[in-house]
Amino acid sequence: MSGFTPEWLALREPADVRARDPGLLAALSAHLAGRNAIDVVDLGCGTGSNIRTTAPALGPVQSWTLVDYDPVLLEAARAALLAWADEASENGEAIALKKEGRAIAVRFRQTDLMQDLEGAIGGRPDLVTASALFDLCSTDFIRRTARTIASEGAAFYTVLTYDGVQTWSPGHPADAEMTAAFNAHQGTDKGFGSAAGPNAPEALALAFRGQGYLVQEAPSPWHIAASEQTLIDMLADGCAAAVAEIGGVPPDIIAHWLGVRRTASVVGHTDTLALPRI
Ligand SMILES: C[S@@+](CC[C@H](N)C(=O)[O-])C[C@H]1O[C@@H](n2cnc3c(N)ncnc32)[C@H](O)[C@@H]1O
User: Fold this and answer.
1) Computed from CA positions of residues 114, 57, 88, 155, in that sequence, does the dihedral angle turn out positive or negative?
2) Full DSSP string of 213-267
3) Does residue 95 have a pLDDT over 70?
């Protein structure tokens, strides 16, 4: 339904985990330290990569709501989390996990965030988080997210927002042209109005500063080498398909560009932590 398959999300998860900025996660952990229990909402959760990486840095009792509009991904998230936990029990729709001494309750919510962001975030959570979501969203939706989170008084932590940088090794004369066209495609509507695409990190920082939040940012680029050749190949295929769709680069150049086997790639991202001033 969403166009993101469990297979693609599993392929990118190791690169995501390596790329995240540890300093921002430590700052989030320090901000939430001392609370007896933490309520967290994960927007656009996919198969649960974000909870698997963030929860081990947070307190001993956590309650997560995983939100996505794709039922296939929510079901895959549930299965992946049951397998990830040290101990797990099921309680209807919800699951209760033990992981490295933490008690983590998880419930799943199928919601189109464009339709009901406010319902998904409501309930005074301590933290609203997301991974690889906001470059899909419009600047208006990002402002709406910041307003809604501020009205709940929650902290905000989002990782792996694409920032427009792509490099390929070995290089190709059309790399810059291809990246520019890919970035233009990133600005098309992904279900939230015209997407902020590579401008999303800046839009997030501005929106949360506008709500009086303290905003910290850090780069979180993917560094992908030949040991992850399938990921590199899928990135190149995805880039070529997006460029062909948006037009502007001649098909023979796209075909020649795609014909060069890349053995390494860097894809720029930004992590953002926005904390309410208490
Ligand atoms: C790039 S994937 C990231 C998934 C996951 N957070 C991760 O890091 O692996 C974007 C996710 O946002 C979800 N998504 C996109 N548009 C959405 C919408 N309008 N409402 C809810 N979820 C949406 C997709 O289904 C997908 O799971």
Assistant:
1) negative
2) -EEEEEE--EEE-GGGHHHHHHHHHHHHHHHHHH--S-HHHHHHHHHSPPSEEEE
3) yes
Query: How far is Cα 49 from Cα 191, in angstroms, rounded to an integer?
Result: 22
**What is the mean predicted confidence (pLDDT) over 43-68?**
98
Structure tokens, 232: 């590199």
Residue 23 and residue 278: Cα distance in Å, rounded? Answer: 21
76, 162, 178 from 108: Cα distances, Å: 11, 26, 38
Decide: 69 in ligand 1 pocket, CB within 6 A.
yes
**60 CA → ligand 1 middle, Å:** 27
Cis peptide bond prior to 198, omega within 30° of 0 = no
Q: How many other C-beta atoms are found inside a 10 Å radius of the C-beta of residue 57?
A: 13
Pocket flag, ligand 1, residue 154 (CB < 6 Å): no
Specify the DSSP class assigned to residue 189: B
pLDDT reported for residue 145: 98
- pLDDT per residue over 205-257, tens digit each? 999 999 999 999 999 999 999 899 999 999 999 999 999 999 999 999 999 99
**pLDDT given for residue 42 in this prediction:** 98
Tell me what pLDDT residue 3 has. 82
pLDDT at 1: 60
Distance 249 CA to ligand 1 centre (A): 29
Examine the pLDDT at 278 and tell me if it is beyond 80: no
Using most ligand atoms within 8 A of CB, pick from 65, 68, 231 the residue to mutate for ligand 1. 68
Let me know: does 96 contact 105? Beta carbons within 8 Å.
yes
